[in-house]
Amino acid sequence: MTTLSSKATCNSHGQDSSYFLGWQEYEKNPYDEAKNPNGIIQMGLAENQLSFDLLESWLAENPDAAAFKRNGESIFRELALFQDYHGLAAFKNAMVQFMAEIRGNKVSFDPNKLVLTAGATSANETLVFCLAEPGEAFLLPTPYYPGFDRDLKWRTGVEIVPIHCTSSNGYKITAPAIEAAYQLAQTRNLKVKGVLVTNPSNPLGITLTRRELDLLINFIDAKGIHLISDEIYSGTVFNSPSFVSIMEVLVNRNYVGTGLWNRVHIVYSLSKDLGLPGFRVGAIYSNDHLVVAAATKMSSFGLVSSQTQYLLSAMLSDSKFAKNYIVENQKRLQNRHAMLVNGLKTTGISCLESNAGLFCWVDMRHLLSSKTFEAEMDLWKKIVYQVGLNISPGSSCHCDEPGWFRVCFANMSEETLELAIRRIKSFVNTISSSKTSEGLSSSSTKNTRRKSLAKWVFRLSFNDRDRER
Ligand SMILES: Cc1ncc(COP(=O)(O)O)c(C=O)c1O
C-alpha cells in the first residue's frame, strides 16, 4: 500500500467537518422534483444560480466570445498557445473595471496590481504562502467560512487564531475581541502575521461597518501586520448599509503610499458575484509590488485558462451589460432572501438581520434539546436525514454558540425553496407537539418523540408524493 506524505494525510484540511459531510450526504440522495422528490435539498452550497439567464442572453448576442473569434476571425491558435502568467491585459482591465463598478466607482484599481488565480481558494492560499512562515498565524473573526481551514492552513502550515464574535452584539468585531485573539496567539507562541476578514461575511451575510473597518486598520497599524480582505461577496450586497471596501477606507483616511497601504490585500473572485465557480477565476489585489511579483510567480500553480480570460474580458468590458447585471442580480438576491426570511418567520425561526450574500444565518437555538454542540449535531442530523435539507451547522464555521445554521437560498428554484420551507415548518410543528406531549407525560418522553417523528416522516413523504401527482 502506498504510504502518503504527512502533508497529504494530515487532518488540517478539515474534510471531516460537517460542512463537507453534508455535501457527501446530499450527493448520495439528491433531491430532484421528478426523479427523487424525497431526496435531500442542497442548502449548504453558496452558489448563485439566479442570474444565469442574463449571462446566457449576453452569450447569445455575442457568439464570437465563446467561439474563439475576434471580429469574426478565429483566434484559436493565439489562445491555445498563450501561457504568460501575467494574464491577458484585456481581462485584467475588465476585472478591475468590474471591481470598481461593484464599489460604486468610489475607488479605482490598477491592473498592474492584480494577480489572477484559479478562484479565491487559490488567491487566499497564495497570499498566505507569500506573507507567512509555517507556524505563524492569522487572526480570523468567528464564525468563518469552513473552507479557510483548508485554504489557509493545510498546505501552508499556518495557524488560524479565532477572534471570538458573538450574537449578543450582532457579531460585531470589537477592539477587546481582536486584542484577546492577539494575546491568545502570544500564549500559544504563534507570531501573528495578519488578520483575515470576509466582507461581506460568509457565513453571516452582513457587511463590515466603517467602525469595524477603522478598528481593523488601527489594529494592523499598531501591530505592524497585514490585513487580507476577502471581498468575494462584494457584488451581492442587496440592502443598506451599502458595501464599503477596505480600499475605500484607506483612500479616505489618506493611507495611500504609506507602509500600511502596502500591507492591505484584497481577494476577489467571480464565483459568487457572477455565479461562475466552475470557471475558476479569482484574483489578489495588492499595493505591494513585492507581493504582486511573488504571487504572480506562485500563480503558475493555478492559472486561469486563456479561453476563460478571453470570454470574460469580452463580457465584463461590456460596461452596459456589467452595470445592468450587478443591479438585476442584487434585486433577485434580495427577493430570494426575503422569501427565506419570511418563510422561516412563519415557523417561528428568525435569522440574523442581513444585507448580503447567498445565505442566511439562522437561529435555531430554541430547537436544541440542550445548549451544547452535541445537541446542535443531533438537530443537524435530523434536519439532513429526516427533514431532507443539507444546511451547515454553526460549529462547522467555528461559531462559539450552539444552535446557529447557515442556510443557502440562491442555488435552487423558487419551488424548491418553497418545498424546503414547508419541510421545516412540518418538522417544527412536530417538535412543538412532541414538546407539549412531553410536558403532559415526562415518563413517555422518548416514545412520544419517536412516534411523532415517525408520523411526521410518513406525512412528509406522503405530501411530496401527493405534490408529484
Ligand atoms: C469567503 C470565501 N472565500 C473564498 C471562497 C472560495 O471561492 P472560489 O470558488 O473562488 O475558490 C469562498 C467560497 O465559498 C468563500 O465563501
UniProtKB/TrEMBL annotation:
<comment type="similarity">
    <text>Belongs to the class-I pyridoxal-phosphate-dependent aminotransferase family.</text>
</comment>
<keyword id="KW-0949">S-adenosyl-L-methionine</keyword>
<keyword id="KW-0663">Pyridoxal phosphate</keyword>
<keyword id="KW-0456">Lyase</keyword>
<dbReference type="InterPro" id="IPR015422">
    <property type="entry name" value="PyrdxlP-dep_Trfase_small"/>
</dbReference>
<feature type="domain" description="Aminotransferase class I/classII large">
    <location>
        <begin position="41"/>
        <end position="424"/>
    </location>
</feature>
<dbReference type="Pfam" id="PF00155">
    <property type="entry name" value="Aminotran_1_2"/>
</dbReference>
<keyword id="KW-0266">Ethylene biosynthesis</keyword>
<dbReference type="InterPro" id="IPR015424">
    <property type="entry name" value="PyrdxlP-dep_Trfase"/>
</dbReference>
<dbReference type="GO" id="GO:0009693">
    <property type="term" value="P:ethylene biosynthetic process"/>
</dbReference>
<dbReference type="InterPro" id="IPR050478">
    <property type="entry name" value="Ethylene_sulfur-biosynth"/>
</dbReference>
<dbReference type="GO" id="GO:0030170">
    <property type="term" value="F:pyridoxal phosphate binding"/>
</dbReference>
<dbReference type="GO" id="GO:0016847">
    <property type="term" value="F:1-aminocyclopropane-1-carboxylate synthase activity"/>
</dbReference>
<protein>
    <recommendedName>
        <fullName>1-aminocyclopropane-1-carboxylate synthase</fullName>
        <ecNumber>4.4.1.14</ecNumber>
    </recommendedName>
</protein>
<dbReference type="GO" id="GO:0008483">
    <property type="term" value="F:transaminase activity"/>
</dbReference>
<dbReference type="InterPro" id="IPR004839">
    <property type="entry name" value="Aminotransferase_I/II_large"/>
</dbReference>
<keyword id="KW-0292">Fruit ripening</keyword>
<dbReference type="InterPro" id="IPR004838">
    <property type="entry name" value="NHTrfase_class1_PyrdxlP-BS"/>
</dbReference>
<dbReference type="InterPro" id="IPR015421">
    <property type="entry name" value="PyrdxlP-dep_Trfase_major"/>
</dbReference>
<comment type="pathway">
    <text>Alkene biosynthesis; ethylene biosynthesis via S-adenosyl-L-methionine; ethylene from S-adenosyl-L-methionine: step 1/2.</text>
</comment>
<dbReference type="GO" id="GO:0009835">
    <property type="term" value="P:fruit ripening"/>
</dbReference>
